[in-house]
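This protein record is not my work; I was only asked to verify it. Would you go through it and say whether the fold makes sense for this chain? Here is the record exactly as it was handed to me.
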Amino acid sequence: MAGASGATGAEPKTDAAVVRDALGVGFAVGLSGFAFGVTSAGAGLTLAQTCALSLLVFTGASQFALVGALAAGGNPLTAAAGAFFLSVRNTFYGLRLSQLLALPRLVRPFAAQAVIDETSAVALAQPTRRSARLGFTVTALTLYVLWNLTTLLGALGAEAIGDTNGWGLDAAAPAVFLALLAPMLRTTAERAVAGIAVLLGLGLLPVLPGGVPVLAAALAAPLVLFFQGRTDSRRDRRSSPKGEVR
């Protein structure tokens, strides 16, 4: 963990650069709210229910998982459970961000609402605590306002917009997150974790309930660490003189 003066010890970015990056993410992902509004309305949720999900839940993947399961005729409790499991990842983001941002206690409950993929990625990509706070805040505010606005517009104009698959709006959020994540994968182990996680998530998607493949993908990290540890151990044994006890 870095000290109060910085998150990584790297050269600080200008405020303008941090705000530009945060606004770019907020606007790009915020447009996905159109797709959610249309999908939710198509699943039979009312305008009030659709808007309440975006206002209170505010984690796009879980919202899509919920309404997608309902649209497929799933049980509401099962759909809610899948959405819950999918949002568990935000808990782990929060553990890291609580150390990085070190926000005042009174602010933390409000900040917790904004701990999602995009705000976490922007904050963690910053070189100092100050820029991390700025990036987190600007991304959160931009995305929250735009996501809820486009959710409303999508729900109101569901019939006029038609099939959102043709627009590709539902791919905006994961595409932006992958673009943010890719430059952070600097080591072989990190790339291996990312690759295995993708294979697990996509491979298990057809056979497991919504939300569960994402949790299964988290097994990629301990798997890579386990095999990396065994490889390091064998290398140490080969490099040790005969008879030396290690």
About this structure: Residues 122 and 135 are 6 Å apart (CA to CA).
